[in-house]
Amino acid sequence: MFASRAVSRLFVRNSSSVARSFTENSPASFPSVKDTMVKSNYHEYEHAHKSTNTWFWINLFVTIPGLAAVCYFAVPTELEHLNHLLEHPREFETLPYMRKRKTQFPWGDNSLFHHPNANPAPSE
């Protein structure tokens, strides 16, 4: 019983000193980045920060509106094209060099990348 009290007191004392040292070394008491870096390295750090900010604003005010404008003009045309393809599907053309297989695929006659709208199947 005595030993457990002594150990618990020791732990309490050490933990309070750890807590005290943690508050003394809190981030608020650390020196600033400018004071800790070499002067030439700090100028490189500032330059990198400024150029990163420049590219952020370029992306925000040039790239995103540009993509929106491209989508505004391209999407309706693309939707018309897709609707046209659905109205008039492609017909399969038998060519002598196509679909020559010695063994069948394990999953069937079509390739793994077969899509019925883009790759018409033969009507055998």
UniProtKB/TrEMBL annotation:
SUPFAM superfamilies attached to this UniProt entry: Mitochondrial cytochrome c oxidase subunit VIa (SSF81411)
This protein's record includes keyword Metal-binding: no
PANTHER family: CYTOCHROME C OXIDASE POLYPEPTIDE VIA, CYTOCHROME C OXIDASE SUBUNIT
Subcellular location: Mitochondrion inner membrane
The protein, known as: Mitochondrial cytochrome c oxidase subunit VIa
A Gene Ontology term for the protein's cellular component: mitochondrial inner membrane
Membrane-traversing stretches: 55-75
Any Pfam family hit: COX6A
Family the entry assigns: Belongs to the cytochrome c oxidase subunit 6A family.
Keywords: Membrane, Mitochondrion, Mitochondrion inner membrane, Transit peptide, Transmembrane, Transmembrane helix
InterPro entries given in the database record: Cyt_c_oxidase_su6a, Cyt_c_oxidase_su6a_sf
Principal localisation: mitochondrion
Gene Ontology MF, one: enzyme regulator activity
A biological process from GO: mitochondrial electron transport, cytochrome c to oxygen
